[in-house]
Every structure is written in structure tokens, then in C-alpha cells.
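Example record used in the benchmark description.
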Amino acid sequence: MVAESRVGDAEDHLRRAKTQNEDVSRQLQDANALVSRLGQENLELHRSLQDLDSGNAGLAKANSSLQQELEETKMKLEDETRVCKQNLTSFY
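Model output (C-alpha cells):
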């Protein structure tokens, strides 16, 4: 009888251990799936960041070009204004 009781207790303990093992295995699978998903999401965000950096570099280049064009236009306008003033001065 004592042996049967111990066997029964051992079987109960074994069932609980198997249940715990299954729970831990599921949790591990869930964690691995989450790690995989987060890794993929991180990769996509990294690509998006690279695209944004590239776009930002293009905008910076365009801004620099426009600034240079603006300065050249200002210089031309100043030259034309000076010529117009000279023409008006010599006309009167």
C-alpha cells in the first residue's frame, strides 16, 4: 500500500512536471516568435531610417543649391540695380 501511494504521488508529480514543461515550452515558443517579429520590425525600421537619411541628404543638397542660386540672383539684381541707377543718373 505504501509503495502504491508513493507510485501514485510520483505519477502526480510527473504529470505536474510535464504540464509545467509544456507551459515553459509554449512560453519559450512565444518568446522566440516575439524575438523574431521584433527583429523583423527592427530591420524594417532600420530600412525606413536609411530612406529618411537619404531623403534628408537630398533635401540638404537641394537647399544648398537653392541658397547658391539665391546668392547669384541677388548679385545679378544688385548689378542690374547699379546699372539702372547709373543710366538714370546719366539721363538726368
